[in-house]
């Protein structure tokens, strides 16, 4: 995710050695998920990596 001035600007997919890429259907679902929940994701990253807080697991049970 690329953030600029507190807004999501771009989602960049990187390949990982040894991991298969998502197929086009799953990639669309992943992008839709990130676009919908990016603010929550970034808040948890900041809480965990910067503030050194313990974050609770969030279960998302709705289908995209």
Describe, in plain words, how this protein is organized in 3D:
This protein is α+β, with helices and mostly antiparallel strands. The chain is globular and about 35 Å long. The longest helix is centred in the middle third of the chain and has 27 residues. Helices cover 42% and strands 11% of the residues. It has one domain. The chain contains one helix and two strands. It has a two-stranded antiparallel sheet.
What key phrases describe this protein's structure?
64 residues; alpha+beta; two-stranded antiparallel ribbon
- Stretches where pLDDT is under 50 for at least 5 consecutive residues are none
- The ordered string of helix (H) and strand (E) elements is EEH
What helical percentage do the residues reach?
Answer: 40-55%
Give the number of DSSP strands: 2
General form: globular
Largest sheet: 2 strands, antiparallel
Q: Which structural class do the helices and strands define?
A: alpha+beta
Largest beta sheet: what is the strand line-up?
Answer: 1-2
Oligomer: single chain
Write the layout of secondary structure elements.
Elements: E1 2-4, E2 7-10, H1 24-50
Antiparallel strand pairs: 1-2
What's the quick description here?
The protein is α+β, with helices and mostly antiparallel strands. It has one helix spanning about 25-50; strands at about 1-5, 5-10.
């Amino acid at each position: 995710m690329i953030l600029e001035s507190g807004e999501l600007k771009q989602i960049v997919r990187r390949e990982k050695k040894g991991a298969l890429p998502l197929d086009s259907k799953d990639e669309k679902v992943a992008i839709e998920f990130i676009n919908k929940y990016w603010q929550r994701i970034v808040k948890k990253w900041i809480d965990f990596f910067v503030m050194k807080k313990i974050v609770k697991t969030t279960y998302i049970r709705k289908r995209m």
